[in-house]
């Protein structure tokens, strides 16, 4: 285990919790539009609707205009209207879910400024528009997905605008030796929730021990991208440079976006555990891998769920919890809210009632695990 202890000591140098920028408190969500509707941001015009469906349709105006209109609704806080604009062929997302997705990113990137560029591409057989958006503290791509009738059926964020820009900003650490390992694109899981992933396998005969990197909650890609920082990629490629194979993957919320929020009965197993179990099975199938020496490194929410992951993966050699929680989840959420309050941020973008209920629940039961 000396090799693993040494590498684990190296990885603790990566600070995955940074001081977020201070931005204005997000406004509460309402079910109706405000009486005075502010104008759309520059370059985003109101999209005419299809008389047959009542929705903004790419067949009437073009996908780029519909995508920009949809982004404009999110930017103005009209989440109920954005949900109503979804195609009748898919379940409409909860406006609160749209709000949380939008505010997760504006909290990181600051105030929305403008849509810089929009271009079409196909994703999983769907027509989409990828819009590069300027925010106060950086750029990000927003992908709006269309159904066969030209109406919005999904959207999600792609961290960093454009692959070439992303690659130019990324500077791999000195301990990554690309000549020491190969890279293979793989697919994790089963339809309809298959996920793309990357296996980094050391060169040589093997068999090599392996580590599956499991992302936490919220949309996270296989690199753990935040700006120009790629902690999961650095861990994965760093271990592969030291003769340890790794598998990392885009998580379900990153790949499938708001389609998840619309589904009933969504649990922590769907968010983390099911895909982690599939990822371990996929790495075991890879050539030159020692099936008896596979570990799981789980971050954040996944770290708290590592015992459940281990229970469903017999023969797992071990697990590493990275920035995981070991206390009741409501206590962790309240501590995070207190931290946001100390920065002058609102602890609850959806209004105070949910936090009041959560505080009451936490106070009613003793907590001896602090």
Could you please describe the fold and organization of this structure?
The chain has 370 residues and is an alpha/beta fold. The chain folds into three domains: 2-20 and 173-322, Rossmann fold (3-Layer(aba) Sandwich), CATH 3.40.50; 58-167, Nuclear Transport Factor 2, Chain: A (Roll), CATH 3.10.450; 329-364, no CATH class. It is built from 14 helices and ten strands. It has helices spanning 2-11, 58-61, 63-75, 79-84, 95-109, 163-169, 231-241, 252-256, 258-261, 268-285, 301-304, 306-311, 329-342, 352-364, and strands spanning 112-123, 126-135, 138-146, 152-159, 181-188, 195-202, 208-214, 245-249, 289-299, 318-322. A six-stranded mixed sheet has the order 5-6-8-7-9-10. The chain has a four-stranded antiparallel sheet with strand order 1-2-3-4. A hairpin with a 2-residue loop joins strand 1 and strand 2. The longest helix is centred in the C-terminal third of the chain and has 18 residues, at 268-285. The model is unreliable at 1-61, 161-166, 347-351 and 364-370 (pLDDT under 50).
Keywords:
Rossmann fold; 3 domains; single chain; 370 residues; Nuclear Transport Factor 2, Chain: A; six-stranded mixed sheet
Tally of separate domains? 3
End-to-end distance: 30 Å
**Total count of helical runs of at least 4 residues:** 14
Write down the CATH topology of the largest domain: Rossmann fold
- Tell me the β content: 15-25%
Main-sheet strand order equals: 5-6-8-7-9-10
CATH superfamily of the largest domain: Alpha/Beta hydrolase fold, catalytic domain
CATH class of the largest domain: Alpha Beta
Strand runs, count? 10
Q: Structural class, please?
A: alpha/beta
Q: What string, H for helix and E for strand, traces the elements in order? A: HHHHHEEEEHEEEHEHHHEHHEHH
